[in-house]
Amino acid sequence: MNIDIITIQPELLKSPFEHSIMKRAQEKNLLSVEVHHLRKWAVNEYGQVDDYQYGGGAGMVMMCEPLSKAIEELSASRKFDEIIYLTPDGKTLNQKIANMLSLKNNLLLLCGHYKGIDERIRQKYVTREISIGDYVLSGGELAAAVLVDAIGRLLPGVLGDETSALTDSFQDNLLAPPVYTRPEEWEGLKVPDILMGGNHKKIDEWRYEQSLQRTRERRPDLLDSIE
Ligand code: ADE
């Protein structure tokens, strides 16, 4: 999968993809992330990409022309399946959306700043608008990093153990069960006996029960969507 990202803060997007699972995904050529600096398509020699908003009010708006030129130029070399704008007024990201996007080949992500991007770019190019939660970030970059991570780890072959993404929280609308590692007893707290017994059928049943209980307590809304 190729993911292109247009931003005015490319430095913010360096580190998230240079470590751990995202690094491995790229090394295995399962994922390619290319970050493009919007200033390359600035309207003048001062690197201008934003301007005051019509109607007045505080905050700059990212202009149509640089964004349009960037999108057109990148689209000439790749046919994007989706052009996604990260914005707090988008649809809230969830596992279902991440699963669906992980099946695409080419994604283009647009990161907004200040007051956001000119509405006409949204109308003309954007196919999907995604928020990572009901709070406002300083820009779309950290949201883009979250989205790439959520998608990238789902690509076949990225996680060592092929099944491990399937047992994540949310994959079946249930939260994950508790997990333990050595030592067997720590500060008087013991690992549940069932996990030490080696009976995998019983362990699976216990984990499922724990998942259900945890979901009931913490996210009962998720259970409403299980048939
Ligand atoms: N840009 C600013 N805040 C955001 C959010 N919550 N989600 C996605 N993009 C954003």
How much helical structure, as a percent, in the residues?
25-40%
Question: So, the CATH homologous superfamily of the largest domain?
Answer: SPOUT methyltransferase, trefoil knot domain
Number of helices: 8
* Ions and ligands: adenine
* CATH architecture assignment of the largest domain: 3-Layer(aba) Sandwich
Mean pLDDT: 95
Q: Radius of gyration in whole Å, from Cα?
A: 21 Å
CATH topology of the largest domain: Alpha/beta knot
Strand order of the largest sheet: 2-1-6-5-7
Order of helices and strands: EHEEEHEHEHEHEEHHH
Specify the oligomeric state: single chain
Structural class: alpha/beta
For the biggest sheet, the summary is:
5 strands, parallel
User: What's the number of extended β-strand segments?
Assistant: 9
Percent strand equals: 15-25%
What is the number of independent domains?
Answer: 2
Low-confidence stretches: none
CATH level 1 class label of the largest domain:
Alpha Beta
